[in-house]
Write a structure and sequence with these properties.
The chain has 3 helices and no strands. It has about 100 residues and is mainly alpha-helical. The chain is elongated, with a radius of gyration of 21 Å. This is 2TM domain-containing protein.
């Protein structure tokens, strides 16, 4: 099987897309948490704790994508690892097939 290789530009695009998915999940989930908090217990607000905690993680993700560009390197490494794993799987299948023939 021929494995498709990903260019660094494609890895950058995927890293950006992954960040935007992360940011959308952050906005969506924290909006729901804020709504729940403000409608059920406006006198005792807690929604800012997950907002702040997750915000730190999102900020670090942004740094790895847009500043250090390490996220693209991780995308490439992950893609290479998957290709190697797929190749090993196919080798084992072929060996099993040969053993039964």
């Amino acid at each position: 099987m021929a494995t498709t290789t990903m260019t660094h530009e494609q890895a950058e695009q995927r890293a950006h897309r992954n960040f935007y998915i992360h940011a959308a999940a952050y906005a969506g989930v924290n909006s729901v948490l804020a709504y729940i908090d403000l409608t059920n217990s406006p006198d005792r607000m807690w929604f800012y704790w997950p907002l702040a905690g997750w915000g730190v993680g999102l900020a670090l993700h942004a740094v790895s994508v847009f500043v250090t560009h390490k996220a693209a390197d991780r995308v490439l490494a992950r893609q290479e690892h998957r290709a190697e794993r797929q190749e090993r799987r196919e080798q084992r299948r072929e060996e099993r097939h040969q053993a039964h023939v």
